[in-house]
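From the pipeline queue, job 12 of 40. The input is one protein chain; the requested action is below.

Action: predict structure.
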Amino acid sequence: MEEKELKEERGRLYRILRQDVDWIRIVREAIQVEKWKEEEYKEKGYGTFYGWEWFMVHASPHTLNKMVYERVLDVTLSTRSGTHFRVRNPSVVVDIIKDIERPTKNLFGTAELAKGIRLSDRMTIEELIEALDYCQSVVLWIRWRLRNGYIRMEPPMVDPTTTE
């Protein structure tokens, strides 16, 4: 895979895994199962390990199918009795999970956030990415609150005595 394709793949996987924490758990468990089963197959001489099934990673087939659609997983074997999956690019996924779970600074109260994100020579690319990640998490939090009815979006009150 070329460097440009790898960057695009990494960015795509980062956006997908950042949105759903449960997918991170599934992928982490899947990578662990793949390691264990590959070792077991080598030790016992079973041949090729085709992949794991839904019950090995404690995830519903529907969720795994969505992950295949989003190109996080690959289907390696499909029969009438079951479907076997593997993580599409395990080394990249492990790096992305480390990046997502890396602790970040709290940006409340910083001068850049208080004034709005302003690009300057003093702001590094890492600080900008951190600020944008924070903004994305705030947007996701607000959407969740809207979806669950904690915030209501109603039209503004109109004064009936005014005419336009």
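Job complete. The helical segments are 3-19, 21-44, 61-69, 90-101, 111-114, 125-147.
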